[in-house]
Every structure is written in structure tokens, then in C-alpha cells.
Amino acid sequence: MDKSRLYYQTPYVKSFMCTIEQCEESGKGTWLAVLNQTGFYPEGGGQPFDTGTLNGVAVLSVHERGDVIIHELAAPLEPGTLAEGIIDWQKRYDNMQQHTGEHILSGLVHRRFGYDNVGFHMGSEEVTVDFNGPITPEQLDQLENEANQAVYDNVPVKVLYPDKEELDSLDYRSKKELTGLVRIVEIPDADMCACCGTHVENTGEVGIIKIRSMIHYKGGVRIFLLCGRRALLDYRDRLKDETRLSNLLSARLDLVPEAVEKLKNDLQDREMLMGRLYGQIFSLRTEQYPEREAPLALFEEGLNMVQIRQLSTLLYERKRGSIVMVCSPGNGNEEYQYALGSGCCDMRALSKAMNRRLNGRGGGSALMSQGTFRADRQSVTKVFLEESALLMETGAQ
Known about the structure:
The protein is of the alpha+beta class.
């Protein structure tokens, strides 16, 4: 074991003394330092790097370059300087809780189903673990119960450095073939895995393992979870959200799902009614225009894109224009959502030509195109009439 890596000898090290051996510019306004020993964990094995300070200078990131640990600093430190390293302990301990919790869950999945952990990442929001096999929601609940029982049992988390003969006799998890000195993390009755990360000393320190969700992923599943303090903070935030919803809906906390479902059904019924009413209004609006072979441009306030398409379709199907453009203002008076419809001309070509001239975007089919123009009403009307006339003339030839 490399004794200069203090996070392995004493994972609970919060501060330490060291000597700056090297310090050079990174080329991006920071400095890269090498220490004679370090308590800062470098990113690896799915675990993020530690941060903190060296003699008050911020340690921005920590990475390995071969066998050397590189500390990215916000300011330079002179080589030979005796420095005090102070680790952001809350971040480190959070990572230790997440990592040990992940080992417990992954070990139980492997023991029960034989699946491998094929992906692991500790993100800023949650931990993700990928397994190469299916798990049902019911099985997931059982796994969560078993994982938390391992926490309640408060067994020691052991770190082993077996020799080759001992290693060959161990049944341990590993993502790749390993050579040389192998670091094994063992959690009795839960997991045994080759690992380079930092862990709590006893499973009870994990506090809680909470699975947030699961999705199907690459033939297996991806599980999202949180452990310890981060799980507590997440629960607190979720409870605040639920309480707010409860107050907004005037429903007891346990009845919020039913209240939301009722609100959703009421909204769908209202949208259906509004759709029918708008259909009647658009039909009456269409009757105000005579049949014509010339293009028709119509500007209407307060329509969404579905309604814009609906009105445009009615107008061109009832021959109120050879080409129909319906627009409704978006953000301000110089942005319009539009729909172009016609039964005789290709609207893809017209949309492309108008988008080019009006800083627009969008597209569609030969019968109808839609999108947004970033221009004033006068410019939109002018370009529509010009490009429509050109399209009809070209089509006639």
C-alpha cells in the first residue's frame, strides 16, 4: 500500500501536513501541485475527487497521472513549502456514505441475481448504478429492505490486501482482470469487491439507503439512489414539495395523489370542451371569408400552435385561400408562431423560403408547415405574399 496516500491509511483524515514537491502552471490559469503525501482523494472508480484547501489556497480538483496525484490549485505554492491540507469533510463523508451504500446494494444484487455492476457514477444530484439484468419493482423494494437491514446490522467495513494465493481463493466482484496488489472492500453478508474508493468504517454510518427510481437501460436496469445525509436532505425537500402541493390542492398529504389525478381529469375534460368550442369558433371565423384563389394571411391573438394549425387547415380546405398563413404573436410583437397550409402548393418550400428571409425556423409536410418567424407583422405579410406569388407562378409553369 502506498503510504503517501493518507486517505487509505486513515480514511477519516480531515487535515494533514505535507510538503509541496512540485507546482507548475496548468495553462488555464490554475496550478498543478504534487505533494509528498496527501489526504485528498483523486477522482476514480466512480467516486468524485475531494476538494478543500492547501495553506488556504483552494484545491479545485484532484486527479491521477500515472502513479502521481495531481492537485489543481487556484494559486501557486512554492516547492519545498510545508503546507496544511484541509479537506472539505462534508463532501468527503457524503461520498463515503454513497460509496458504501452502493457496495451494499450492488453486492446484494450480485448475490441474489448474479448480475454485474456495469456502471457506477456518483453525481451531484444522485448516485446511478447500472446492472446487466432485469429487476422488477417488487424485487427492488425487497433489495432496498435487505440493503437497509445491512445498515441496521452495523457491521464493520473491512479493507483487505490479500496476497495472490489468498486473492485466488476469494469470490469478489471486479469490473476487470486485476494484477499486482489488489484492494478488497468486504461488507460481511453483503459484498466483497475490488475497490479503490473511500468508505465508512461501519455500515451503520451509511444511515439509510433510499432508491429513488429505476429505468430499463441497455438490456438491464439503471437504479438511482441516495444514501445517508443526502438521502435525508432529499426527503426533507420532497416533503416540503408535498406539503406545498397539499396546501395548494386543499387536500391531506396522503390524499395528494388522488387530488392531482382528479385535477388532471378535470383539465382533460376542460381541454376537450375548449377544443370543441374553438372548433365552432374557427368554423364561424372561416365562413367570414369568401372562397378565393389568392393567398390569405390571417393574424390572430392568443392561439397556441395546435389552434393555429386547426384554423389554417379549415381555411385552406374550404378554399378560403390558395395558400393560407395563420400567425399568432409569441414573445413580443416581433415573433410569430405560424402555420402554412395549401392543397395546391408545397408548403415545405414556402416555409424554407420564408424562414430564410424572416429569421425563422420550422418545417413540415407538403400540405402544412409550422414554426416561428422573428420579424414584425408588416415584414411577415410582405414576405408571405411575395414568396407565395413566386411559388404559385413557378408551380404554374
